[in-house]
Amino acid sequence: xxxxxxxxxxxxxxxxxxxxxxxxxxxxxxxxxxxxxxxxxxxxxxxxxxxxxxxxxxxxxxxxxxxxxxxxxxxxxxxxxxxxxxxxxxxxxxxxxxxxxxxxxxxxxxxxxxxxxxxxxxxxxxxxxxxxxxxxxxxxxxxxxxxxxxxxxxxxxxxxxxxxxxxxxxxxxxxxxxxxxxxxxxxxxxxxxxxxxxxxxxxxxxxxxxxxxxxxxxxxxxxxxxxxxxxxxxxxxxxxxxxxxxxxxxxxxxxxxxxxxxxxxxxxxxxxxxxxxxxxxxxxxxxxxxxxxxxxxxxxxxxxxxxxxxxxxxxxxxxxxxxxxxxxxxxxxxxxxxxxxxxxxxxxxxxxxxxxxxxxxxx
Length: 363
Hints:
Residues 297-360 form a coiled coil. Helix 5 packs antiparallel against helix 6. The chain has a 6-stranded mixed beta sheet. A 4-stranded antiparallel beta sheet has the order 12-15-16-17, with helices on one face. A 3-stranded antiparallel beta sheet has the order 9-10-11. It has 3 domains: 4-177, Lysozyme-like, CATH 3.40.80.10; 188-279, no CATH class; 287-362. The protein is of the alpha/beta class. The radius of gyration is 35 Å and the shape is rod-shaped. It has helices at residues 34-43, 115-132, 165-177, 204-211, 281-330, 337-362; strands at residues 4-5, 11-12, 22-27, 55-57, 63-65, 72-73, 97-102, 144-147, 188-189, 194-195, 201-202, 221-227, 234-235, 241-242, 244-249, 252-258, 270-278.
């Protein structure tokens, strides 16, 4: 999903070593535009009351990010009397939560979400849960999703106000059953970079492909091959061979095509076309054989082009000698009989050479 960035510094850097286990739903109690709310957060930097949230969702569905998910946004204040009993009050709640503000013009947060707002909220929550393996249920001591009221029922009992909780959890359940865009167990995704168990990182089309493919968590990265030379390539959807990369994993490979048009950044602009193929020692062997054969074909093509050039030169020499002989015969003795015989012999030799060259490549 598209997320506009309006960052601020109102956050605990690196969460003081903690990881997010909860998503907290908020209502802004004023305002309808996400960018305006994000700019307000930014304006409080360095003030006596700096505030923020990781994300703001406008009534038009626009999503703005204000803080990295790796940091604890200044969003939840402190625990008040009557908070849910499973919270660990020895830990600052901002360091274990990701907070999402929903623009609501009413000061009591009584507005219901617009359809666009709800769609963006559900998608964002789904992606965050997948990135951080946050439980997709009502929050408890092990993590989950809840509202600001869970932390501060005294001052934030109406935050977020009306929210379609049942629809949210139904949507999350449906997504889980479909295994859509799931982060493999033991891997981590921060929204732009996916990291496997061994620390290998993936972005762009490769990240998207893995998240959408019910990827085996043990199918970790091994290495890559750059395919940008003659005889190497990635098969594109239209049947052409283009340049690209092949990323090898424990049990599969991902081929990533570059744009075939060399006018576009030297032919190295990613097309976002990826192909997943199962792989093993046999397929690796086959890939090497195909690569070697492609090189041989390129070499033979080069030799053939050189031979054609040589054949053309021979033909030009034959033509020149034939013209010379013809002119000599027309001048009635311009050449001695021996000279004419020598020319005929040269022509015969050149013809023989041309025939031998042709026969060599017919084989």
